[in-house]
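Researcher: I'm preparing a figure for a lab meeting and need a structural model of a single chain. I don't have an experimental structure, so a prediction will have to do for now. The sequence is pasted below. Please return the structure as tokens so I can convert it later.
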Amino acid sequence: MTKLTDISAARPLVLVGCGKMGGALLQGWLKGGLTADAVYVIDPFVDNARAMVPGLAPEKFYDSVAQLPKDLTPGFIVLAVKPQMMDQALEDLKGLTVADTVFLSIAAGKTINYFTEILGLDAAVVRAMPNTPAAIGRGITVGYANRNVTDSQKATCHELLKAAGVVDWVTEEGLIDAVTAVSGSGPAYVFHLVEALAGAGETLGLDKELAQKLATHTICGAGALLEQSADDATQLRKNVTSPNGTTEAALNILMRDEGLGKLMVQTVRAAYQRSRELAD
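Model: Understood. Here is the structure written out token by token.
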């Protein structure tokens, strides 16, 4: 069974980008057994990165690839920079020995073809799409590995991504755009639902603070119940819907032909199309 302790000082992990997502992943790796001598961190804002992960010695952080030990041969390079910074990050990495190195990217819109055009057709690349709850270890990440990634390397990537929450895989890279539309952008849909629900409460006379509190706890509580219950969302909805009751009256609006279901399809399709445009 693959473990983070399998990543050694001989073939260490290099994390490029230690912002909120990269920092959260690193903290999870260290808690999961990754040893301090098996990781190096690159971030131009090195003091901020050190402050984010105080459990790692300051000398493990560098503000550029050029400062890394000259004989370093990484086993894994995790790319956690913003998409617009990826060109420069890959250019900097050309100075490293990367034979048999796996490149694991969590940058939106950057395709496998993008990486192999820069790194070469033999490069082992994993493209992953996490979402923002990963910052507290409650996200879901879906990955796609190209044919150069071995089963063992993919298993290690799975363990690395587990630091952010649940992990799943697709066998077609094009499905990452659908993943982006559902789970990558999905937290924003939920946050807006809280805004809309609270706003509706205010129209009925609730003060803003109480309306926000009711909406937030309702969404968070319902999500926790859904996660822990043996019933699926459909059954849980039915459980709370009494015949001719208040919930049924509300759902008659939400579930009508032009209601939330149709609007959500339009919403997700818009995100999906934009994801495909960004990848072109």
